[in-house]
Amino acid sequence: MAAGLYGFDETFTTWMDMGFRLMAEDGPRLRRQWLAEAPSPMYDDVSVAQPLLYMVNHALGRMLFDWGVTPVAMLGHSVGEFAAATLAGVLDFAEGMRLIRDRVEHFADTPPGGMLAVAAGVEEISDLLGGKVALAAVNARRQLLLAGDRDSLAEASRALDARGIVNRDVAARQAFHSPLVDGAVRAGLPGFRRVRLNLPRLKVYSAYTQDVLSDGEAVDPEFWASQAARTVYFAPTLDTLLDDVDCVLLEAGPGDGLSRLARRQPQVLAGRSSVMSLLPDRWRGDEVDRRSAAAARSLLCPGPVLTGAGGTGV
User: Fold this and answer.
1) CATH superfamily, domain at 114-170
2) What is the pLDDT of residue 276?
3) Which regions of the chain are under pLDDT 70?
């Protein structure tokens, strides 16, 4: 989660510290969990994962801006789109942190659930969708996420095993991007209505509409509040973006998960666009984080550059 850059890059550190302050009484606990030698058992819970993902992606974006990187567009995955919108000026970071704190409170009370990664196309598993199992994300042509309650996901997993379709549990305690969190979305809507939403200063592609974020969507509280319960169409949206512009895809998130997905895109395979990530695939020590970021900075060159932030983010 980019912890190696904390105390090393001034811009990144400043924004992370601001985020911890805005978490109020939860800030010190969250900071300790982030910087601990080993992840706590709560790391996959909404109370830790959501604020840290938002803060880290936002702080990495600010660091890139400070380097002089001017993005032609941004694309985020799940909470990464929220971070991208913040970087684009749609909402203020302090208000974004308040909404994240509200999300933690509301989503802590959602029914127990989880997510399942599936190596298949949507058409192959469409009969398993509906009811208590939802299509949470389309990350690649044959890489999906399903979400729902644990019993329903276990039943879906057995059905997939019988078909010879590879699937595995994802480390998550809440069934994000499924109807199971509709109640939390409704509870969070008043908070979004109190926030000032602005027109984006930078182009943002929305993985929910699979197109450029429109002015109407940018200032619509219901659009932002509902995202946590809607399907993330990352791969189709990345297709749209790469059809619109040839660019450097620069992952500004914790790890290289979306970089690996992006390298499978036809436009990248054809050499029209390229892919870089700021950080290694997983934490290998503070010094590795720092070397990875320094290497990315040295490789950045003039021309169109795409930056982004994601739950992992591109």
Assistant:
1) Malonyl-CoA ACP transacylase, ACP-binding (3.30.70.250)
2) 93
3) 301-314
